[in-house]
Amino acid sequence: MAPTAARDDERWRTAGDRIQTLLDASAAGGTVARERAEQLVREITDLYGAALERMLGAAVTANPELAEDFAADGLVASLLLVHGLHPHTVEQRVSAALDGVRPYLGSHGGDVSLLGVADGVVSLRFQGSCRSCPSSAVTLELAVQDAIRAAAPEVSDIEVLAAETDSPAAVIPADALLSRVHAHTTTWCGVPELAGLSDAEVGGFRVAGMTVLACRVGAEVFAYHDRCPGCSGSLAGARLSGAVLRCPHCAAGYDVVLAGAGVDAGVADGHLEPIPLLERDGVLSMAVTPAVEVA
């Protein structure tokens, strides 16, 4: 994506926040002023929505393939969602969103299955997640929730079933499962420089005031906080050997593909602290959250 196009996309992605800020400011004029401002926004939105529906119908009638092109464009798709014109069903969008994060889940030894969507509730089942790593569990939950909310904002709740065992599966309330995520404010920061990493390359980046270590193994990019669990030192200067990242100070090794798990006897119970990394609107982005305390 060209720099100008990327800046334009960023501008429109934040348009909703700017509109909400203006509506909030209108409240200073009293309840009547606020209601009039909200009515004005609704009238304009309905007007443009009606015109967009006619344009979409004409375009897709002339060329049915355009429906998929519109759905693949993040900005256009978000506008279609606002007006209820997206060509894909909620279940199709949720399924595609999960496909998008599945490689990331796999890097943590986990996976997720979509069991269904009914009455605005998405039912999922996580499998083989890195349960021994609390920070990994948080990042997996965060990645899945963000992907679903972005693809299907009309979803009202997410139900997660326990992994299949010999005992009957029980429903885990989404609020309970994702409570650690809800308790922390998350900001997604685009880091387009990550796309420039070559295979087996390790790089350090400053993202939202923190130092992050990122590396590429084949087609996948992985990101971790810049701290070695073995010696508590920086990983600056670390090198990859296959999927194993070696600390330049204590030589401890960590498998970056398997959630940063320690591979040596001395750090077998340790792990790097992973950072959610997803492609958002064509740009690799990191989820920046406050540190999660592990009991």
Automatic annotation (TrEMBL):
Residues 192-286 form the Rieske domain. Keywords: 2Fe-2S, Iron, Iron-sulfur, Metal-binding. It comes from the Bacteria. InterPro entries: FSCA_dom_sf (IPR034904), NIF_FeS_clus_asmbl_NifU_C (IPR001075), Rieske_2Fe-2S (IPR017941), Rieske_2Fe-2S_sf (IPR036922). One of its GO terms (molecular function) is 2 iron, 2 sulfur cluster binding. The keyword Phosphoprotein does not apply. One of its GO terms (biological process) is iron-sulfur cluster assembly. The keyword Chloroplast does not apply. Gene3D superfamilies: Fe-S cluster assembly (FSCA) (3.30.300.130), Rieske [2Fe-2S] iron-sulphur domain (2.102.10.10). Pfam families: NifU (PF01106). SUPFAM superfamilies: Fe-S cluster assembly (FSCA) domain-like, ISP domain. May be involved in the formation or repair of [Fe-S] clusters present in iron-sulfur proteins. This is Thioredoxin-like protein. It comes from Mycolicibacterium chubuense (strain NBB4). The lineage of its organism: Bacteria, Bacillati, Actinomycetota, Actinomycetes, Mycobacteriales.
